[in-house]
Structure prediction request, 224 residues.
Amino acid sequence: MPLLTVIVPAYNEEKTIRDIIEKISKVNIDKEIIVIDNGSQDQTGHILRGIQQPNLKVIHHVTNRGKGGAVLTGLSKATGRYIIIQDADLEYDPQDYGLLLQAAQEQNADLVLGARFTKGYHGSPIPRMGNCFLTAFFNILFGAKLNDCLTCYKLFPSAKLPELKLTSMNFDIEIEIVSKAMRKKFKTVEVPISYMPRKYTDGKKIRWGDGIKLAFTILKFRFS
Prediction:
């Protein structure tokens, strides 16, 4: 059993998929890497077929099932003691895995979140403002004190996965994980991480309309 399973959902990431796998591979932690080619229409799938590593599993979805669908596929194949989700777009630095694992082990945490906005922020202010609003909204509804409820970096023991009963097939999976952890009184901690956001011209997919949807998603998981 590896210490860590890294789940990488990827959709049309031909420019970065090879780089992110290399970066993950260089992290000195016993791990497996599960990449889900989520129905990509560019060369992502072709590139992945050409990468051979003993600790790498690649799963190809014929059609795009949403980020949540890709994450659920990865979770179903995970064998590590801990699980973390890694976007393929190079915004997050895999070298931060050690910080999250250390917090999980030393503080006996059920969920460790990588907080993006404690080391300074180098991107557009509009996404930052949207994140601040959504995190504040989340904190009010759940009585939490999180810095970043929407971070991709969510590390948790695989033994806790059955308690979450995740079902979301789209970006809602980000809120579902944290919401259910709060409702089940998971011991949750945050650690500062590095974050270099992409620009929309580089392929960033989140738009302002997604923020409105996420606000309703927070409400849904709070009161459902």
In short: The chain is about 40% helix and 15% strand.
